[in-house]
């Protein structure tokens, strides 16, 4: 990795025309082997792996610990930092600790509310919101704590943020993205895309505000496992838009082809993303189905990744 | 706001900035007044750093995630909250109401500071607006703190 880049992810975003990140959910136990196995599965098909921070407010292994396990294997992690469980003191302390371990990519989120998780009675924190969290990490990069005190030597983070184009008020979403980029976000990952029309509208607004010039926008995609999953996402998941055509398409597929069809849909969406102006890559989220990611990356012709070309001694995995 | 730049307001600001005890008394006296007005109208949460006029007169502290800078990604398709499905998303209403106002329409697009939890339910936002506590201006303590009153020892009859 060149010195001018903060992380390998930044290098991939700046030097390749289409970057790939994938998501890795830590286990609901203390087993390091789960992370290592998932890391081995995903290392060849993504430039960096997101380690989620107790997503949907269900207790899992810590994001920073998972990142450390991945780094031992030579995989580039992106840690997620949510505002749900920590106040600004704990967050800054965790960020400094993560930097000391070698983490360079941080994704700043507000975090899912605990009402949908397995500890709905927990105390909420939400000390900062995601925009102010991004601003705080930028402040750390510039050598000052959130309170204004000096921090020397300053850490160097590559700051990410998220945006969901599929939740109302739709007109306000690009402006909220602008807030995050103004606060210092350098790359953006979006919510899972199924409604491409809505996403194109969103990206047109984003390009009007010139945001795609100031940050790398990674389109979030993911495979469907079954018609039941598609129906559940359409009816029950807040902030997700599932067009009826996709549900019908999944319902019209025989049971043994469900998974292959889900991957086909995902690959078609990635192909459409390649044509949208301002998209710098994709972020593949496969919810508890990591085996799909190498197949999606291969079918969408996203392989091999640049960091794999540098290290020639690594054997390429057999693709399904 | 120009009102706070008038001469009596400037004098009052300087007075409060050098007399923290006076500020404290006035602020404490104004908390119930402010609550009586703002609670029924806007569902005020007494955060002491009011963002009502920036947000179309919808209180952002009613958001379960205490977001000060816009809606989270969990807003339902009908504009309701992810956490309380029967309630409107605070930010959904804030966005559309603020765009209907004749003034302050652009304020919702600005980045707002994180909440100062020292002021939360402990001070009046009107006083904080005057003194600038809500934008992070700290009081300048008086040069010489007042000495504690000496209580004379009890004289018992011999």
On the 0 to 100 scale, the average pLDDT of chain A is 92
The major sheet of chain A is characterized as: 8 strands, parallel, barrel
Number of helices of chain A: 13
Could you tell me the number of beta strands of chain B? Answer: 0
Overall CATH architecture of chain A:
Alpha-Beta Barrel
Low-pLDDT segments of chain B: none
Q: Which ranges of chain A are low-confidence, i.e. pLDDT below 50, for 5 or more consecutive residues?
A: 313-320
CATH class of chain A: Alpha Beta
Oligomer: heterodimer
Biggest sheet: strand arrangement of chain A? 1-2-3-4-5-6-7-8
Label the structural class of chain B.
mainly alpha
Q: What is the H/E string of chain A?
A: HEHEHEHEHEHEHHEHHHEHH
Mass-distribution shape of chain B: elongated
**Helix and strand element order of chain B:** HHHH
Radius of gyration of chain A: 19 Å
Mind summarizing the main beta sheet of chain B?
A: none
**Integer tally of domains of chain B:** 2
| Beta-strand content of chain A | 5-15%
Instruction: Provide the domain count of chain A.
Output: 1
Report the end-to-end length of chain B measured between terminal Cα atoms: 66 Å
Describe this entry's structure for a reader.
- The complex is a heterodimer of chains A (320) and B (158).
- Chain A has one domain (8-306): TIM Barrel (Alpha-Beta Barrel).
- Chain A contains 13 helices and 8 strands.
- Chain A has helices spanning 8-15, 32-42, 63-72, 88-101, 130-141, 173-183, 196-208, 211-214, 227-235, 244-251, 258-274, 292-299, 306-310; strands at residues 19-24, 48-51, 77-82, 105-109, 158-163, 187-192, 216-221, 279-284.
- In chain A, strands 1-2-3-4-5-6-7-8 form an 8-stranded parallel β-barrel, surrounded by 6 helices.
- Mean pLDDT of chain A is 92; it is low at 313-320.
- With 158 residues, chain B is mainly α.
- Chain B has 2 domains: 1-49 and 116-137, no CATH class; 50-112, no CATH class.
- Helices cover 34% and strands 0% of the residues of chain B.
- Chain B contains 4 helices and no strands.
